[in-house]
């Protein structure tokens, strides 16, 4: 029996791969890496399940590429936070805001910790987290010098994790005091002393 209907045309969708990666990040932020499946990602991206498996060799590959996209986007966002900082006080205020961020920063922090947790078991992701750490510290070091930047980076990660887990938010003044103590005397000027 001959087919009477024409073959259905494939929909042109040049952004499908990126949409799948962004959907994977949304799903991982909501359900964690352990609760992420091809099916939940496909549903979030509004694509057929076959599209997900076509573009990515495995779920682990998809998660790794999504995390790489996340780090790229976060690195650019982090850099942008400090674009207009000209004084020590402005620098401190940006850091306090980073710890006490709103919903967008909450999602970002959750994904960051999901990435770090996954990296404990995946050496390839460990390379990604290490590169991200170096990039973040390089941004901070423009304002503080490298030694202080490393200590500040560790403090910020710890404070952000505590902020995510706390039943009661830490007062901004307590956060500011911890950051100022870690920075020490304002000897570096933004974008000045290397």
TrEMBL record:
Residues 37-56 bind DNA. Residues 14-74 form the HTH tetR-type domain. Keywords: DNA-binding. GO terms for molecular function: DNA-binding transcription factor activity; transcription cis-regulatory region binding. It holds the Pfam family TetR_N. Coiled coil: none annotated. PANTHER family: HTH-TYPE TRANSCRIPTIONAL REGULATOR RUTR, TRANSCRIPTIONAL REGULATORY PROTEIN (PROBABLY DEOR-FAMILY)-RELATED. This is TetR family transcriptional regulator.
